[in-house]
Amino acid sequence: MDSTTHNGPERLPLIPEESRTPEQQQVVNNILSGPRGSIRGPFAALMRSPVVADGVQSLGAYLRFKSSIPPALNELAICMTAREWTAQYEWYAHARLALEAGLPQAILDAIAEGTEPAVMDADQRLVWTFCTEMHRDRGVSDATYAATKARFGEQGIVDLIAVSGYYTLVGMTLNISRVPLPAGVPTPLKPLKPLACR
Q1: How do the domains of the chain map onto residue ranges?
Q2: Which of 7, 28, 44, 136 is the most exposed place for a label (fewest CB within 10 A)?
Q3: Architecture of domain 69-198
């Protein structure tokens, strides 16, 4: 069985306002006053641990809205992480954002299928290679590191690592909590066959 399939009801749904602790309500207030403007995705689940939830939402606000990596490339890294975890809600949310940021549909289609996109520009290929190696090999080669540093600098390297790690946490939270897709939205990602290198 595909362990990422959402079988059953949402496990950690949004806590009603009247049942929240003051700390949980403060997390909600912090999120609502930030760039997101609404409680979506993993935060309903994460508010069970308010310190974790507030740290996650603060880090995520930087990684989504202020990263040194350009938006389309940042969304490429996020979608690769969503594919790695078969995080359906994460893919649903960020594939749309990737398209809006200018990432070609063909690249998203290839990632969804677990294959290398046939056509990428130099920056897309660099991010794809960095993230592929990081997820697959649990590190990156010297050549990939040097090329990424030359293009995006050390801050860019850290931001790529951080956005991938952050959306791993988000994907795990979404999958374990069984955050549902909106009504009528088909499941976007099919299970991938295990790769020999994994």
Answers
A1: 15-66, 69-198
A2: 7
A3: Up-down Bundle (1.20)
Phi, psi of 113 (to 5 degrees): -85, -5
- Give the residue from 116, 114, 78 showing the smallest Cα distance to 96: 78
* Contact assessment for residue 64 and residue 149, using Cβ atoms and an 8 Å cutoff: no
DSSP, collapsed to helix, strand or coil, labels residue 67 as: coil
- Dihedral sign for Cα atoms in the order 142, 147, 151, 152: negative
Q: Which has the closest alpha carbon to 76: 12, 121, 28, 140?
A: 121
- This prediction has a pTM of 0.91
Cα gap 19→122, rounded to integer Å: 51
pLDDT of 22-54, one tens digit each? 999 999 999 998 777 778 789 999 999 999 999
